[in-house]
């Protein structure tokens, strides 16, 4: 380093330590050591993990920007521009990933390259090497903080956190099917710069222990995901929710939790949950004994009525009994198969139509009206029904939101019937398909879901005030 007493007017004075920021990485305040003996700048990083395609690799890492504050963690991501062997002052050589970022000092900013390495033993979380120093920078080796000082307090400012750049995420879609919904989730996530991996739920297995619970897949431990989007098929609900519980144990953000998925799949549980939250639904009854058939039907009302298997999906296992005798026959047949079922009042005024409200993050983002195929009381699109965009009332919107909240689902398809006494919830779907509603409403539902995920996985707010040491 050199100390030049006569500094030209256009020279920027740097001390041997300065406050800087890396806005591209969401790091608004860092104290950096200036070292012209080092070629490349270095940033303290840990949990370094590569991801993305081989032709455009990226790296994820986390930073403790404040020395001594291990509880303050800032997650970052960037494109990898190189990988270099760097020899430290003690003669040790380390292979490091190199990224590029904007460096801001006072009113000046320019692009620099940074290597990622563990500097936890260093007093400065960042080192500025000679490649990052512009030609018109003068180093004052005997002093520090020649440029405006910053403060670590910015990390507890909500406005700063909201302005942080959207970092690239690693997301798992738990699905066994290559269908429209799965493809859209992958397509939209990658368009937003994230890495999205489709994981077959049944090929996952779990290491269950108190200290380091893990999820393994095809013989290897799965990487650390920022979020998991469950698309659990009805036939594997039990095992699928066990895998989701494992991710929850690890601390991964799951769009829909295991409890909500389990409750939505068991129709009896679902109706009991909605009754507890005073959510409108068709009159429903359930009984196990064949001696209670007549009493069961009286609880619902008069024919016609619906007899529904507890674990039916896409309209399968749902029968309309138009007379009391027909209802008795269907109930006897289901009991003969030792199948669990419930009986519901048939809402005649719905006329074979229902409303699917798509709820994402506590908001109804789209709604469509589904009409059953000719002669079919079921409106499921998988059974030949048709869909058009729907305008819903305030009461219908509030009912859909209350239903999704009761199941604690961040993504839910809430199916409503329009009755004379107000909206009635038929079902809450924890893995709603995207094709029908995106086609009918021309809305980008996958985009709304990713906006919610990105908001949920931001760094945890820091509440304790930090006082920097000079």
From TrEMBL:
For this UniProt entry, what's an example GO CC term?
A: cytoplasm
GO:BP terms for this protein? SOS response; translation
* NCBIfam families the record matches: PRK10446.1, rimK_fam
Single GO term (MF): metal ion binding
- The ATP-grasp domain covers 271-454
Q: Output this protein's name.
A: Probable alpha-L-glutamate ligase
Does the record's keyword annotation contain Hydrolase? no
> Which key words are in the record?
ATP-binding, Ligase, Magnesium, Manganese, Metal-binding, Nucleotide-binding, Protein biosynthesis
Q: Which SUPFAM superfamilies match?
A: Acid proteases, Glutathione synthetase ATP-binding domain-like
The family note in this entry says: In the C-terminal section; belongs to the RimK family.
Superkingdom of this entry's organism? Bacteria
Q: What Pfam family does this protein match (any one)?
A: Zn_protease
Does the record bear S-adenosyl-L-methionine in its keywords? no
Name of the gene encoding the protein in the UniProt record: lysX
Cofactors named for this entry: Mg(2+); Mn(2+)
Stored InterPro entries: Asp_endopeptidase, ATP-grasp, ATP-grasp_RimK-type, ATP_grasp_subdomain_1, Peptidase_aspartic_dom_sf, Rimk_N, Rp_bS6_RimK/Lys_biosynth_LsyX
